[in-house]
TrEMBL record:
Main location: membrane
Organism domain of life: Bacteria
UniProt-listed PANTHER family: ABC TRANSPORTER PERMEASE PROTEIN (PTHR42929:SF5), INNER MEMBRANE ABC TRANSPORTER PERMEASE PROTEIN YDCU-RELATED-RELATED (PTHR42929)
Identification of the protein by name: ABC transporter permease
Chain ranges of the ABC transmembrane type-1 domain: 93-300
Length: 312
């Protein structure tokens, strides 16, 4: 009786049998339900992303005045001219992009083998253990993890202390407060994101493809580079883009691991907004950072279309 009542209800719309409801009206009702489900996320996206981003862009084209954050109708490009004519700022752009690219490459080199092992591990217990090891690094707060790295890499840290005691070096190695320290910190933070992006795509590659290549005379290495690696390219691109976006926008890692000596764009944004109160100029640097990230997404989209034969 319950199934019959549910069927009768499903076959009616506004008191009419389904056969008497026009297809156009049914499509309108289905479309309304779809947009109704989408509405909360859409409102949240507009309120907390579109509006703040639009305000940021508008503020960037206002004259830089210390302590003033109100929008003005007067438009000026002085903030952007200052960014691209002063070496301290455009060098920070190049440094930010370079560090993010290096971090993405290092994460790919370190993360792909581990992702491959996890994806190919059939034993459930072993697979779960490896996944726990990857996810456990994300459970600690970022600042705590970075302080742990500082204990490890500092001038009086564990690594330098061990090297000096063994007589390998006479002076501490410069492992922190430079680009190397920032790269190590960013790799430690972003590596799990690369691994998680790769595991799913590697798992989706059917083992029969690699076995077919082996049966035709290809070695294990050749089968990997000709079958597995090309088919895992969507995961490589997605993980690289994610790591690049996280690295180029990071403030905490350059501040702690770079010791305010590695000047990247997020550091300049903080200084202009929090220290000098020049919100307009800080907004202009943020706009440049935002556009740089969009350019990275465009490059990713173009590369993804190439690897998928032109299908977006």
């Amino acid at each position: 009786m319950a199934v019959s009542a549910m069927t009768t209800t499903d076959k009616q719309m506004d008191g009419l049998p389904l056969a008497q409801v026009s297809p156009a009206r049914k499509r309108l009702s289905d479309g309304f339900g779809f947009w109704l489900l989408l509405l909360p996320a859409l409102i949240f996206f507009i309120a907390f992303f579109v509006v703040p981003t639009a305000s940021l862009f508008a503020l960037a084209f206002n004259k830089s005045v210390a302590g003033v954050i109100t929008l003005s109708s007067a438009i000026t490009f002085d903030n952007f001219v200052r960014i691209f004519t002063r070496a301290i700022y455009y060098e920070a752009i190049l440094r930010s992009v370079g560090i993010a690219a290096v971090v993405a490459l290092v994460c790919l080199v370190l993360g792909y083998p581990l992702a491959y092992v996890i994806a190919k591990t059939v034993n459930p217990g072993r697979n779960t253990l490896l996944m726990i090891l990857v996810l456990s690094s994300m459970q600690l707060d970022m600042v705590i993890r970075l302080y742990g790295l500082m204990v490890l890499l500092g001038d009086n840290g564990l690594i330098n202390g061990a090297l000096i005691r063994m007589g390998i070096v006479s002076q501490p190695l410069p492992l922190m407060y430079n680009i190397f320290g920032v790269v190590v910190g960013l790799v430690q933070i972003t590596l799990p994101f690369m691994i998680l992006s790769l595991i799913g795509i590697i798992k989706s590659i059917h083992p029969a493809l690699e076995e077919a290549a082996r049966s035709l005379g290809a070695s294990r290495t050749k089968a990997f580079f000709s079958i597995v690696l090309p088919l895992s390219m969507p995961g490589i691109l997605a993980g690289t883009l994610l790591v690049f976006a996280l690295a180029i926008s990071s403030y905490v890692v350059p501040a702690l691991m770079g010791g305010w000596k590695v000047m990247v764009m997020p550091i300049h944004i903080y200084q202009q907004v929090a220290e000098t109160g020049r919100w307009q100029f800080g907004a202009a640097i943020a706009v440049v950072l935002f556009v740089t990230s969009l350019m990275a997404i465009a490059v990713y989209h173009r590369a993804a279309m190439r690897t998928t034969g032109g299908r977006s």
